[in-house]
Amino acid sequence: MKKIKFIFTLWIGKLLMHFSNVFAKGRGTNMPGAKANKLMPDFIGNFTGIDYSKVIFITGTNGKSTANNMVVHTLRSSGKKVCSNLEGANMIGGIATALIRDSGIFGKVKCEYFSFEIDERSLERIYSFIPAKNVCVTNLQKDQVQRNGEPDYIVSKFRKVFNPDMKLFLNNGEPRAKSFEVFSENVVYYGVGENKYTFKKDKFYDVTMPCPKCNDKIVFDFYNVDNVGKFHCAGCDFKSEENPGFYAENVDFDECSFDCGGSRYIVTNNEPFYIYNYALCIAVCSSLGITSDEMQSAFYTFKNISGRMETLSYKTKVLKYIRIKQENPETLQTALDYITKDKSPKIMLMGLEELRDFHPYYTNTFYSFDVDFESLRDNNIKRFICFSEAVAYDTANRMIYAGIDKDMISIIPNDNDEDILKELDKYDVDNVYLITWLKKFHELEKSTKIYGGDENE
Amino acid sequence: MSDKTLNISWVYPDLLNLHGDRGNVMALEKVAKLMGITPKVTRVDTFSERIDFENSDIILFNVGEVKTVAPIVENLKKYGNGIYDFANRNKVIVAVGSTGAILAKQLKRRDGSTVEGLGILDMNCVERNEIYGDDLYYTLDDKTEILAVQIHIVDFFLENENDALGKIVYGKGNNDSDSTEGAKKNNVYFTNALGPVFVKNPWFAQKIIAEAMKQKGVEIEAKDLSKEFETELKSAEYIKKFIKNKG
Q: B205-228: per-residue pLDDT in tens?
């Protein structure tokens, strides 16, 4: 009876997938699976042909999409057939959709490998149906506080899932991720060594985090990206491994190359956070028997599906949009770090905006105080423009606290594109950086065409 | 000659680093300077470093993860009567967010375990199963308005509602039922307000600083700083409008 129900649900899922491919392109990554799960809550547990030792779950706050894209691309480039949720639908609906797509009419999945990006909150449920033998944790940071509250909320959820039957791939430079080492004897560490972008934080207001083991202070010996580097605890013996198995060293950012796991790799993306993803990918793929030559060959052609940066043309100006995840300080810090590398004259257009992901909508901007804005002070920024219906003044205030002259900041207390672009028109600088959430970017994408004179009317 | 130095002990800044609350220290420094006071902030980074109860005027515990409550209480108890004497001398203690639980009598964790707090404030706490985030708007006894946000992980229950720091205008405050916000006993303050609260409400920082100076025998002349707080006042205006439109 259960089998019949599963097949019936699967067919409905396949039908929905077909319809969404024809009539609602873009909605087919999650919807068919989500509907199937609604009809049958244990739907994903009924697929056959899955070898759990070839299932990889990639989870964590930041980097999981990129790492998953990289692993899947590498496996596929090596001739393997891989089932994945590459489109970023990382909850149970997205996993179900991927399985519907890659299975036959009786639910047998026709792939050898399975690599899934998993939302942190969904890990427990998905694992209960698909007990993956390979689990990767990129990092656990502050994120979506309205749902998650604090990182320990997710840590507690992970602790219920992790067990000795898993092979864990853990970021050696991120304390919370590394702390899961106690759950399995089978741990592979990955990380990145000191390089030209390595930095230290020793200013008065620099802060770290409590130790996941003893709650005393974590001290970072160095950072490669915010909150990730080499660390030790001030109160106990918890620290980064001295010799992690997959450690990207001798990173040459000009040549885009590094050593890892005994081979030198040339890659196409050379931002520091990408090197972590490469190191993880090498660790996972090595463990699955992919050779370094095969990996190198894949890296030559790797292109991330969802890039973080896009550009818009507006009159003579170029707006460089850097995507941030709201309430996620690391992505905001990474965006600011990127901007500060550009020494040319520029305008900074900043729309932190109110939070409208979940009800009730609210005006949180406190994560901006987790981020260092001081580097923007002497960075040839000719004008700061802060906009939003309710938090434009709070955004401006964060900049004032960083020592930016109040007179350099325009505050637009609304979300009107025409007002934003009119303010931009006042300044004779064509290099513009835009930081805001994705929805606002899409609105501005249309408005720059309308007010910039490129719209075909 | 009176000592116009304000000694702030910023206790466990790395452990209690959750919602950008280092901004509270920046705000206390900034407001103190505007008041003509010299701020001196001392970090107490690790459990092995000493908190100087004798020479502190304000002890600040920012918001941290709930798991840090037990080890911090355990560590503070090692000082014997240190923090109790400090509170009894009417010195200023500020605790923000879930960290308020260290000053409470008891915290019941989600897993059923309990943590005995310091018992400086007459309240009990229960860690929630579900997290709630929203704006928070309340008034102090003297009608001063506080605009903030709240990430509510722990419910606080006051034994006497008169001990509340403020009255809710919008938002949750201490719990789902009694419209109280925070707690105050002598000069021990607890608030759920994040933002950081002193960044968004420098007038609140001004009150606390004046109180701390008074306790060290330095009367600070009331000063109208509304021009200096122009950005924050505008922020409050737009956020109140946003809250009103939420219905």
A: 999 999 999 999 999 888 899 999
* DSSP symbol at A346: E
Contact (CB<8Å) B48/A234: yes
Interface of B with A in 14-73 (CB under 8 A): 14-15, 17-23, 25-26, 30, 41, 43, 45-48, 64-68, 71-72
pLDDT per residue as tens digits for the range B41-96: 999 999 999 999 999 999 999 999 999 999 999 999 999 999 999 999 999 999 99
What's the confidence (pLDDT) of residue A58?
98
Q: In angstroms, rounded to a whole number, what is the distance separating the alpha carbons of residues B235 and B233?
A: 5
The reported pLDDT for the residue numbered B3 is 83
- A260 half-sphere exposure, CB direction, 13 A CA radius: 32
Task: Yes or no: say if B66 and B33 are a contact pair by the CB < 8 Å rule.
Answer: no
Query: Which one of A143, A160, A238, A363 would you mutate to disrupt binding with B, by most B Cβ within 10 Å of its Cβ?
Result: A363
DSSP 8-state code for residue A217: B
Same domain, A221 and A179: yes
Last residue of a domain, which of A274, A300, A326? A300
Among candidate residues A300, A330, A362, the one where a domain is terminated: A300
Residue A366: φ, ψ to 5°:
-65, -25
| Residues of the domain holding A340 | 309-452
For B144-169, write each residue's pLDDT tens digit: 999 999 999 999 999 999 999 999 99
Q: Does A389 touch chain B (CB under 8 A)?
A: yes
Flag whether A55 is in a domain: yes
Residues in Cβ contact with A297 at an 8 Å cutoff, skipping those fewer than 6 apart: A77, A78
For chain A, the domain total comes to 2
Which residues are paired to B125 by β-bridges? B107, B156
Q: What is the pLDDT of residue A456?
A: 41
Q: What is the pLDDT of residue A308?
A: 65
Residue-range domains of chain B with CATH: 5-246 (3.40.50.880)
Rounded CA gap, B124 and B117, in Å? 9
Q: Give bridge partners of residue A127 from the DSSP assignment.
A: none
Strand pairing category for B92-96 and B106-108: unpaired
CA-based nearest distance B8→chain A, Å: 14
Q: Give ipTM to 2 decimals.
A: 0.97
Contacts of A345 (CB under 8 A, 6+ apart): A380, A382, A429, A431
Distance from CA of A228 to the nearest CA of B (A): 15
Give just the sign of the alpha carbon dihedral A375, A377, A382, A388: positive
How far lies A283's CA from each of A133, A168, A244, A264, A274, in Å?
15, 11, 10, 14, 14
Q: pLDDT digit string (tens) for A303-315?
A: 886 556 889 999 9
Considering only CB atoms, B235 lies closest to which of A358, A370, A393, namely A393
SS3 content of chain B, % helix, strand, coil (to 5): 30, 30, 40
Strand partners, B61: B95
Q: Which residues of chain A have pLDDT under 50?
A: 455-457
Q: Are residues B232 and A393, on separate chains, in Cβ contact within 8 Å?
A: yes
